[in-house]
Predict the structure.
Amino acid sequence: MWEYLPPKVRLRGTPCPGEADARRLAEDFESCRAGLPRPLEPYVLETYGIDLASAYGGLKIKNPFGKASGQLSLAPHQVEKDAEAGLGFVVLKTVIAQDRAGEQTMREWAIPETRMLVERIRGRGGVDGWTVTWKGRGWFDTFAAYLALFEEALGIGNAANMPVVPSVKYHLPTPQEDFWKEEEYTFTTDALVEAWRKHYGERPMPLEKDFSPTLAGSERAAQQARILEWLTTVPRLMHRAAPGKVSVGLKIFNTLFEDAFQVAMLQAVQAVPGGEERADFLVYANRLFDPRKQFEDKVGVAYGGPDLSDRNLAVLERFLSAQSRRPPGFAGKDAGAPLLPLSATGDIHSGRMAAEYLLRGASSFQLHTLFQLPDSEFASRSGSKSEKALHHLLFHPTEGFLAWVLELRERFGWQGKANVLEMAEWCRKNWNEVVEGLSH
Ligand SMILES: Cc1cc2nc3c(=O)[nH]c(=O)nc-3n(C[C@H](O)[C@H](O)[C@H](O)COP(=O)(O)O)c2cc1C
């Protein structure tokens, strides 16, 4: 089991967005309890000079807050509510890949949904948070039903300028297997691209490959060399399945190995010089796995909360520090290759936490657990859970994204309109300055 090492730098205390903005935020937080201003992004730009526009998987998004793949994105009515609330994007529930005959090598992940328990959890750093405990895994209905969901969701999303993308779990070889079942990659990807093209034409379809946390407890993930092999083989097979038509996003999982191996995974993906083996973007990082925790009759379940964000932030820090230590004129394999775009996931329960990931280079944020919390956890009294969550994420006077971005703009001297995508880029390129700035 990995050793717990918290991140070295943190956003501490309360943000100082400046007197006038602080007053405005307090007023907005109060008045927006009855409903968010519409249209949201132009209001934020005009009022605070913050441009929420960003990118996800090569597509423009109006704001960086999206719904992560899971139980809250498996039915059209859920996507409809997210569109109404104004989320930036939605990743659908993970479907288990299949071949033409309907065979699924990863079928053990296609088990029916079970009871979910939303519970409080205390992290190893002593901070309280929330986690969802359950036994369930991937999409359980037929692939045809998933395609129907995708098509309908694309229509809903398109009308609201909210990209909706699929997530797939494809074949990964067990230690006893020395082959990759390519037909699962081809058949599944092709069918999804067909649906996508009806709405987006030739634009490549972002497609997340879910390396789920439960893999960490599986014999498939017992060897480091095997996992590193997955990270280059999977993009190759996904790209080959539909050349030029997919933007491959690897949703990296938290293994049971030490943090140094998590960094090695990021470096391995980054080091691919180009071509079909290189992923197009990363999602970092899926939940933790506790091989000892019992839930009902199952021993070994995934969990989240403060330990998850601590681990993710610490690993991203180590990765960026290693990148910035590379000597001038570094001539390694990935010399000159820009860092892959990063979408963050993991315990993003506040705008403050989103800003923590932004500082580590993330240009979009994917949430799941926050959308499962009881209404009593939110100040907003209007709209769906997604709208309540957006109100909390953006406008909270001390925990909100706007308050923190205003403070960071001041702290790092970002000129003009603070654009989310540009801020994320700046942080990656100037990681040493970020560390320096946060250390005071
Ligand atoms: C109940 C539940 C179901 C999930 N199902 C999936 C899934 O099907 N595919 C996937 O890639 N991630 C899945 N996840 C992971 C989430 O997408 C997300 O990355 C993770 O929970 C971390 O975000 P959070 O801390 O905001 O929950 C699931 C998470 C939960 C809690």
